[in-house]
Amino acid sequence: MKFAWIMAEGNVWDKKKQFITTGLESGMDHIVDFSDVENIRKLGNVKLISDIESADVVLVGRNSEGDGTLIIPDDLSKSKDLAAVKRLKRRDKKVAAYVEILSKKHEELAATLGKEADYLILMGRDWKVIPLENLIAGLQDEKVKIIAAVADYDEAKLALETMEHGTDGILLCPHEISQIKKVAELMEKIQSEDYQLKPATITKVEPVGIGDRVCVDTCSMMQLGEGMLVGSYSQGLFLVHSESMESEYVASRPFRVNAGPVHAYVMTPGNRTKYLSELETGDEVLTVDQNGKSKVAIVGRVKIEKRPLMLVEAEYDEVVLRTLLQNAETIRLVTEDGKPTSVAELKVGDKIMIYLDPNARHFGMAIEETIIEK
């Protein structure tokens, strides 16, 4: 998943603090800094990227000769930065290699460091897309995460979309505080995964008895038409609506999805699933709207209680899916016109939205394998 770090070097502390706290409020909790390390640690639970070995990620390559000049040997295997990266990796440190791209030789050094470091931070002055394309292509089989240093929204968008895949992340070095919020909005949009939902026809609705059902309370407010993808079969999940609607029986709880019994799957970021019984406070799940647009939500609490259950069966293109839901008026699925409908009112022939996954799953990960679920 794409990510954003922030660096506010070159500013007095008061201004740097303002940039960093705005970044933290926008979800950027990885801070690159060299001069105010202790002050930054007091701002919150952050990950620090710096040139000191106590940093969460040790940065190699910035001002390597003491005056900002990077001397590159003809034989790149003799690079001091390469030696430093290897030394730190032998000590099980997370390492970020930093290279300012000024020439073809700098690009070649970056490619060499990218084969050893965990992260490769690329800073450019006059370069735009071509060196970035070369490095993304050259390091695509390596484990390194490529990060482009950018100043604003436009540069961030360019870096993250280069060669379709783009960089793995960006290092935002903003000149204006407004750019932090703009880039945060861009990251949220890019991180969103789309799920192509299909209208399946209800073929059976019947009560089945008592079971342990799971309510997932998130740290996010869901809107009308938004819920979670949940189901008994990994090959297909139902869009179960949030409790964002008022009812004559209970007040709305737009942060909650009454998702189903403990055995059911729920979709999580990266097209992975978890059993509902596995979820706990701090985990990430996906909320999905009627158009298949998703957002990441943090689990705040999970409630497991014994409740009467209802079997819901639906079919799309000869694929039959089933799930179990609490038998209650407040539990809803989403119809093909995007409206929530109560399971108490479901009948054979109704159409509700599902997601079909062409892959089987192994420990929650999508794999190419034949599997039968019934």
Automatic annotation (TrEMBL):
GO terms for molecular function: 3-dehydroquinate synthase activity; dehydroquinate synthase activity; NAD binding. This is 3-dehydroquinate synthase. Belongs to the archaeal-type DHQ synthase family. Catalyzes the oxidative deamination and cyclization of 2-amino-3,7-dideoxy-D-threo-hept-6-ulosonic acid (ADH) to yield 3-dehydroquinate (DHQ), which is fed into the canonical shikimic pathway of aromatic amino acid biosynthesis. InterPro entries: DHQS, DHQS/DOIS_N, DHQS_C. Residues 200-374 form the 3-dehydroquinate synthase C-terminal domain. Keywords: Amino-acid biosynthesis, Aromatic amino acid biosynthesis, Lyase, NAD, Oxidoreductase. It comes from Methanobacterium formicicum (strain DSM 3637 / PP1). It holds the Pfam family DHQS. Its EC number is 1.4.1.24. Residues 1-187 form the 3-dehydroquinate synthase N-terminal domain. It catalyses: 2-amino-2,3,7-trideoxy-D-lyxo-hept-6-ulosonate + NAD(+) + H2O = 3-dehydroquinate + NH4(+) + NADH + H(+). The keyword Mitochondrion does not apply. GO terms for biological process: amino acid biosynthetic process; aromatic amino acid family biosynthetic process.
